[in-house]
Amino acid sequence: MIRVDFSVPTDFEDIPIGADFETAWTELNRRYARLAGAEDLDQEKLSHMARALHQVSRFLKEVGVVYAADCLHLFEGEPSLGSLAVAVVDFPYGGDTATAARGALRGVLESRGSAWAGSVIDAPCGPAAVFTGGQSYTVSPEFSPSGEAVDVLTAQFHAMIPVPESAGGEGRMCLVAFSTPNVSHWNECYAPLMVKTLRSIRFTEAGQTTGADGEAVTG
Predict the structure, then answer these.
(1) So what's the pLDDT on residue 141?
(2) What percent of the chain has pLDDT over 70?
């Protein structure tokens, strides 16, 4: 078992992984109960959102996500939204973490084109291939404020970190993914948070402790 410890940014709230519909419904109601006027929220829309959260939660578990969180807060007087996910997946790399990170960097940049940039850095947890870029998503009409489908550009940060053999991670890769639709907030608000999160990551065998704020354990 591999344990991943890391610092979770203060404003982020955990998203349940592999939750059933009842758990997703309870989580949404818990969050909306804190909002003024939440009693006037359309119950049909809330039900749509609960079903979407249920589907996302199950998908996250299926693809190896061990931790997920999001935030909604104010940055310089503007609402700002961000989402974070950490996954551990099978990735046979032959035992050399530096070579694996360089190979991951080359492969990702070749597949995503000139709009993305990246480099290999020496993080405290080992060599990490990090990438930044933009990606557009289509918000379906039921979740769009206008009631019509809309394309949203997001700023993205990804890191791929080969888990070292010393943590029982031969043939495993840790993936960190962050995105925000508030592209103008990336440099001042979210980039420092992602640097802090990346530098805080530690890999150990399950049962050991490292003193970090966040924790995820995977087989």
Answers:
(1) 74
(2) 84
